Each structure stands twice: as C-alpha cells, then as structure tokens.
Amino acid sequence: MPIATRAFAAVAADRPLEPYSFERRDPGPDDVAIDVKFCGVCHSDLHVAHNDLGNTRYPIVPGHEVAGVVSAVGANVTKFKVGDRVGVGCMVDSCRTCAPCREGEEQYCVPGMTQTYGSADPKGGPVNQTITQGGYSDHITVDQNYVLSIPDSIPLDAAAPLLCAGITTYSPLKHWKIGPGSRVAVVGLGGLGHMAVKQAAAMGAEVTVISTSDRKKADAERMGAKHFLINTDKAAMAAAAESFNLIINTVSATHEIAGQVQLLAKDGTMVMLGLTTEGLPVYAMGLLWRRRSVAGSLIGGIRETQEMLDFCAANAIACDVEVIAPDRINEAYERMGKSDVRYRFVLDMARL
Domain for residue 314, yes or no? Predict the structure, then answer.
C-alpha cells in the first residue's frame, strides 16, 4: 500500500516552504523504499522553489542529496537489502536505451533523465503522483538502478551532499584527467567549491582557490589548497596568468569570467558548474590565443557516482555540513543566498 510521507514543500514562488503530506508508491518489483535520514540543501533547490527558471510546478518537494536506510525492497531487487545505507542523487530514472545511458552517463539522457524532483513521474502509479518529489521528506521510493551504496566510513549526514555537490565536482576532475602535476583553480569556496578542493588535492593536483576575499583562506588551506587568489587583486591575477590546466567555476550568480580565462594555460579549460540564469561574456581572442576552452559539466552517471563515493571513503573525504531541523529550511535558504554556510546545510529528517 502507498507510504504516507511527511515533507517540506514549496507551494508558490513567493511563499516560504511549509509542511506537506503526500503518499509515495509502495515499492514495485525493482524498487527500493528508503527511510530518509538526511537530505542536503543545494543552491538549485532554491532556484526551483523560487521558480527562477520559470518551469516549477507546485507543490514541489525539493531535495536531491538523499541519504538513508533501506526499509523494503521489491521482489526483483538484488543490489540492496533492508538495513543498507544508501543514497539517491539528482536522478531517479532515464530512458536506459540512448547512447549516453548505454555509456553509463545517464545524466545526459537524450530524451531527458527523470530528476529526483520536478520531472514527470513515470512510476506515479496508484498514488497518482504526476511529478517526482524530492528528499525534503521522510520516505522515498526509487528504482534500484538509481540507488547508491554509501560506504560505512562516511557518516550519513556528511555523505548526503556528496550525491550532488560531490559528484558535480568529481566528474569534471576525472573527465579532464586531473592528477599529480595538474594545476587546478577553484572559483568560489562554497558547497561545490570545497568539495572540488578536497577531491583535486586527493588526486594529487596543486590547488588554488579564487575568491572575492580572504575570509575563507584558512578553510581552503585546511582542505588542501596550496594557494589563495583574490580576484580583485589585479597584480596577483596578472601574476597568475596562464597558470592553470583546469578551472572549476562553481559560482551560481552572474559574474565576470573573461578575466579568469586569462588564467588558463595553453589547452586549459574552465568548466562551469554553477547554475547561472544570465549570459556570461567571453571574448574569442582570449580563447584562440592559447587554444583555451570554456565547458560545462552536469553531475555524473550512476556508475561514476558510486566511484566517487568509494573514492571519498578511501581518501577520508566528506562534506563540511551544518545539520539543521527541517523547519529551519526557510532560514537556510535566506542564509544560503548570502553565502552564509560552511559549507552545506543538511536537513535531519528525524527532527521533521
């Protein structure tokens, strides 16, 4: 029978999130039912709740950094059992037949992945859910092929943001083959940025953080950064020209990037990870003169996400989190808009 679920939901763009009750589907043959223990709060949750992209359907339960424990499994489930520590990231299904899906990069599914919240729900079933609802809730039901195993060495609260922040930074670091001898710059030391620093350092790269002030310098060094660059320091920026093989840009607000392009070495790439809603001008001369690139990257596939979790466990990497009760979500959104969090809010669903 359907699973009664409590949650926090956005009901309109101009209203705070509020308590919300609905029903999850009972696990089908291939499904895993999960008791949600913790859910990370991502900046994209705020964008969706506020309808910044213009396509939010209300009511919507955000949350795609889900960590919990398996409570039930379907008859065909072989990957998980009751009691397992598991996670759910940004997607809960995909077409499974297009080239990206066959290659294990379901995030680039051609028809479009089924996002953890806000997508048409192909398994709405008897509870008649028309859209998927996310992890700001005490239960979730997900196909086994889109569930991750969380290693025992990573606490569930610190593991939750790995399901988005962790994989979003890990995937481009792997794609651009970062390793010993690589020079990596990270723009913005927030939820994404602090994970990029930790992961790049663990891969053997020489890491520089680029920020607007030095107030997080000590944190950056603790996480593995060797250098700290303030982007308003013209002399320091000029001295750093042509230094980096890869720049991980995590900023989710409109900002100037043409100057940052000059920091790239020949054949260097700046990869954009922040969800910006306005254009960011880049000039051709700065690109063609050193065969530089500006690229994008979207989370990671299921296989790569599991690889990331195992990498983080092996290297004692987890997110720096501030755990809060779900009824403080509106306060968290307000503080997140001011970059007042070090470095990821996580909702403790036991306090719902």
Answer: no
**Position 172 in a domain:** yes
- Residues paired with residue 293 on neighbouring β-strands, in sequence order: 269
Q: What residue numbers bound the domain in which 108 lies? A: 3-164+320-351
SS3 for 11? coil
Residues 256-300 pLDDT 10s: 889 899 999 999 999 999 877 788 889 999 999 999 999 999 999
Question: How many separate domains does the chain show?
Answer: 2
* 335 CB-near residues (< 8 Å, 6+ apart): 341, 345
Q: Which of 266, 212, 209, 216 is nearest to 241 (CA)?
A: 266
Same domain, 229 and 105: no
Statement: the pTM of the whole predicted model exceeds 0.70? yes
290-347 pLDDT, tens per residue? 999 999 999 999 999 999 999 999 999 999 999 999 999 999 999 998 889 999 999 9
Same domain, yes or no, for 18 and 143?
Answer: yes
- Please, which residues have CB within 8 angstroms of residue 249's CB and are 6 or more apart in sequence? 187, 188, 257, 260, 270, 271, 272, 273, 274
Residue 303: inside a domain: no
**If you ran DSSP here, which 8-state letter would residue 120 be given?**
B
Whether 173 and 259 share a structural domain: yes
Structure letter (DSSP) for residue 243: -
